[in-house]
Automatic annotation (TrEMBL):
Quaternary state and interactors: The complex comprises the extracytoplasmic solute receptor protein and the two transmembrane proteins.
Domain of life: Bacteria
Main location (coarse class): membrane
Transmembrane in keyword set: yes
Function of the molecule: Part of the tripartite ATP-independent periplasmic (TRAP) transport system.
Cell compartments where the protein resides: Cell inner membrane
Organism: Thalassovita litoralis
Name of this protein: TRAP transporter large permease protein
Membrane topology: Multi-pass membrane protein
NCBIfam families xrefs: dctM (TIGR00786)
Signal peptide feature range: none
Length: 426
């Protein structure tokens, strides 16, 4: 009887059912299988209390900001400015790709949005300049996951609100790991550039720096305004997201690339994405209610104690679990489903909650590059018109480097925690 919900859950997964439906349905079946149906009367109240979190308000607004910026001509301005800085280097367009992702991260906070935008714009340019399509697509995929790590990040807001961790501290903690990821990718690109004689270097045609900077300033000012307001306490993440929506609209008007139709389509897209997220949250809140009744987090904590896993051992085990989850699940869905169950025992072992948040989010974001269902790989293979498994092979060296960096971050908490401590946020 107790195995029935798990059998139903596995059948739903392999049938391709949306996560909100199969988690919600399996959980309701679980109430019946575990003879806990008497608690269902309080379910609506429990679910609404889980969703009544102020930080969740920022999520739809940041999604809307990203949608407006994607339609407002920002990508072109950022590429041009990045080219003015990196064009003289060997393999310059590869560095431009990475640097543009860093700038883009402070605007959209979405790996898939970054991959789609640069896949449409920068990959064709790289191919025309002499890069192979495989390499151009691979470096675009690898650099796009910088987006969810450098704030403002939708996934960090989601994690912080769901697991009662300071979103502001998570934002500060994500800056150094995100920049470190960019540096690692630039080193790999430089190695490939000299090995394969990529274009760039002396004599390359590049835009003038100061005109490019002036043109890109409106786009570059947006993350500065948001992050300074959040990190120095002038604005909450929700207030900063509201300012970001207005600023994104004004930037689009400045570039003359945004219309009423663009605004309407951005709002529709935001409504669809936000609705999908909150349906998942309702299902996960239902699951969390059942796990609390059955005291699963406590039992899991006792199991960890019995196994003799210390903080380091449990952290490594968690990383392996989340890597496997990231191969099959959406990032937010994996956080929502596994986080409330697996994170509390980690905190009980003394692992810092902010450090844990950065490691988990970095881990699952790397999952966007892992087969068989890597979201970034699926988007780029479609946008760039390259075979999925061909792209997997091309991105593998970058993926290995990012996995190594993930375990370094997991084992050295100071990488993510130094900046929040210096700013008094931790």
């Amino acid at each position: 009887m107790h195995a029935l919900p798990f059998i139903f859950l596995l059948m739903s997964v392999f049938a391709g059912t949306a996560i909100a439906y199969f988690v919600g349905s399996a959980t309701i079946l679980g109430f019946w299988a575990f003879d806990q149906t008497r608690y269902l009367a309080a379910l609506p109240q429990k679910v609404m209390s889980q969703l009544d979190v102020f930080a969740f308000l920022a999520m739809p607004l940041f999604i809307l900001t990203g949608e407006l910026m994607n339609r407002g001509g920002v990508t072109e301005a950022l590429i041009r400015f990045s080219m003015s800085m990196m064009g003289r280097l060997k393999g310059g367009l590869g560095h431009v790709n990475i640097l543009t992702s860093v700038f883009f991260a402070g605007i959209s906070g979405s790996a898939t949005a970054d991959a789609a935008a640069l896949g449409n714009t920068l990959v064709p340019v790289m191919e025309k300049q002499g890069y192979s399509r495989d390499y151009a697509a691979a470096i675009t995929a690898a650099s796009s996951i910088i987006g969810p790590i450098i704030p403002p990040s939708i996934i960090l807001i989601f994690y912080g609100a769901l697991l009662n961790t300071s979103v502001v501290a998570l934002f500060a903690a994500g800056i150094v790991p995100g920049l470190l990821l960019a540096a690692v990718l630039m080193v790999i690109n430089a190695i490939y550039a000299h090995r394969d004689d990529h274009p760039g270097g002396k004599g390359a045609e590049i835009p003038a720096f100061w005109p490019s900077l002036r043109y890109a300033l409106p786009a570059l000012s947006l993350p500065v305004i948001m992050l300074s307001g959040i990190l120095f306490g002038f604005m909450t993440p929700a207030e900063a997201a509201g300012v970001a929506v207005l600023a994104a609209f004004l930037v689009g008007k400045f570039y003359g690339r945004i219309s009423r139709q663009d605004v309407w389509e951005s709002m529709l897209r935001t409504g669809m994405l936000s609705g999908a997220v909150f349906i998942i949250l309702v299902a996960i809140a239902t699951f969390g209610y059942l796990t609390s009744i059955e005291q699963l987090p406590r039992k899991l904590g006792e199991l960890v104690t019995q196994l003799g896993l210390g903080p380091t051992g449990y952290m490594l085990m968690l990383n392996l679990i989340f890597i496997v989850a990231g191969m099959f699940m959406d990032v937010k869905a994996a956080v929502a489903l596994l986080g409330p169950l697996l994170i509390p025992p980690a905190i009980a072992l003394g692992i810092d909650p902010v450090h844990m948040g950065i490691v988990v989010c970095f881990n699952l974001t790397v999952g966007l590059l892992t087969p068989p269902l890597g979201g970034v790989l699926l988007i780029l293979s479609t946008v760039v018109e390259i075979g999925y498994w061909r792209l997997v092979r091309a991105v593998l060296p970058f993926l290995i480097a990012e996995m190594i960096l993930l375990f370094v971050l997991a084992l050295v908490p100071d990488i993510s925690l130094t900046l929040p401590r210096l700013m008094g946020l931790h």
